[in-house]
Write a structure and sequence with these properties.
- The chain has about 230 residues and is of the alpha/beta class.
- The protein has ten helices and eight strands.
- Helix 4 packs parallel to helix 6.
- The longest helix is centred in the middle third of the chain and has 17 residues.
């Protein structure tokens, strides 16, 4: 795959979503994102204002997590959280679908949720990403979500939170790509820890990589190019 260091870095959401971090760790995380020119720092929403300030002199965006990681907030709560995250400085939003309502076969609810959150993002010119949490879904549920995304048009559909029983798989990326083609972008996240992992996901059809191993991945590519 012919992908240079800058090109790969701009495909990475530099992720720090642990619940027990300090501002010192957030500051270091932002510094790494600036140093390596990652696309975003993917963080919990309480940290957005802090990180936005630290990233002010760079082109790195704050990527806020909504309904994270279980997706079990109401639509109204997710919409409010999305608005709040954007007001605090988020340039991208990743929200988790309500998996319980998928299992209830309540697809009208899922579509309403997607429409309302994507609309908030579109109104503010903010990238929207819909997290499927594929490890909990059947093949038909994944296909139906992809079909819905083609109708609603979020910017991205995304495999995983990284907090489920399994992260991104090549098979799921290929399935999502087969379903949406180039009409909706795809983000692979969860368990992507090496350059080989990242390149495999991109080869399968991913347009963005969510990983806490971004520094390691870019350093691997730097070492390979020496």
């Amino acid at each position: 795959m012919n992908l240079d260091i800058k090109g790969l870095a701009k495909m990475i959401d530099h992720t720090l979503l642990k619940p027990y971090i300090s501002n010192v760790e957030l500051l270091n995380h932002c510094s790494e994102a600036i140093k390596y020119s990652f696309k975003t720092v993917a963080i919990n929403n309480a940290a957005i204002a802090f990180c936005k300030k630290e990233l002010a002199e760079s082109d790195v965006l704050c990527d806020g997590a909504v309904g994270f990681p279980l997706g079990q907030s109401t639509i109204e709560a997710k919409v409010f959280e999305t608005i709040d995250a954007i007001e605090k400085g988020a340039g991208e939003i990743d929200y988790v679908v309500n998996i319980v309502e998928i299992k209830n076969n309540n697809w009208d609810y899922i579509e309403d949720e997607m429409k309302r959150i994507v609309a908030v993002c579109n109104d503010s010119n903010v990238v929207s990403k819909v997290i499927f949490e594929t490890c909990y879904l059947t093949l038909e549920e994944k296909k139906r979500l992809c079909k819905m995304a083609l109708k609603v048009k979020p910017t991205f559909i995304k495999t995983s939170t990284g907090f489920g029983t399994k992260g991104a798989t090549i098979e799921d990326i290929r399935l999502m790509k087969e379903c949406v083609g180039n009409n909706v972008k795809i983000k692979a996240s969860g368990g992507i820890a090496t350059l080989e992992d990242a390149l495999s996901m991109i080869e399968a059809g991913a347009d963005r990589i969510g990983t806490s191993s971004g520094v390691k991945i870019i350093e691997e590519l730097l070492n390979r190019s020496k």
